[in-house]
What does this fold into?
Amino acid sequence: MAEEPKAVCLLSGGIDSSTCLAIARSQGYRCYALTIDYGQRHRVELEAACRVAAALGATDHLIVRVDLAAIGGSALTGSLQVPKDQPLHLIGQRIPPTYVPARNTVFLALALAWAEVLGATDIFIGANAVDYSGYPDCRPEYLAAFEQLANLATRAGVEEGKRFRVHAPLLRMSKGEIIRRALELGVDLSLTHTCYDPGPKGEPCGGCDACLLRRKGFLEAGVPDPLDQRR
It folds into this structure.
């Protein structure tokens, strides 16, 4: 029997990355979950990532520390204020203060490094360009460019003729569609964390862009958010 292909799956602990991991598993990949501790203020998401990785049967779960807070420039890693209670139609119109400079480039580079060590050629990322905050490193042209870079910058690509692929299966899905897909795949969304500015016990603030998009998604999907029952 053929061995399952390996894939590195970036996992933040949110709905999108958790659904992406479940999709990779459903496609027959042996998944290696990679979570980045980058100095984010919403560090509770690291605990969520551990819960999700275990629940979805990741072969291994690696947490790598990269101190992007030392660079700053983002409300997620510094003292800038997280925007709250924006009208939904304005979310994604401009790049917000929660943008972390070069975050996905750093994350994908680490995923690429681990993939090459593992002998894997597939990387999964839960990027979305529909219901998102307008981050430039979530766009399809960026992901295509990184995939090209991956094949130019690795020994596996240059000497061994391997072809790296960056999979973003949620890229053109609405948040409601993502939630419905997660439920179809049996993802326990009560294990996830979304909020950019959680309270002292990890409770969601309810007003940041991430919380607002999560609420929109559950309304579209027609199902209750299990995290609302904890508040």
Summary: The chain has a mean pLDDT of 94. The CA atoms of residues 23 and 139 lie 20 Å apart.
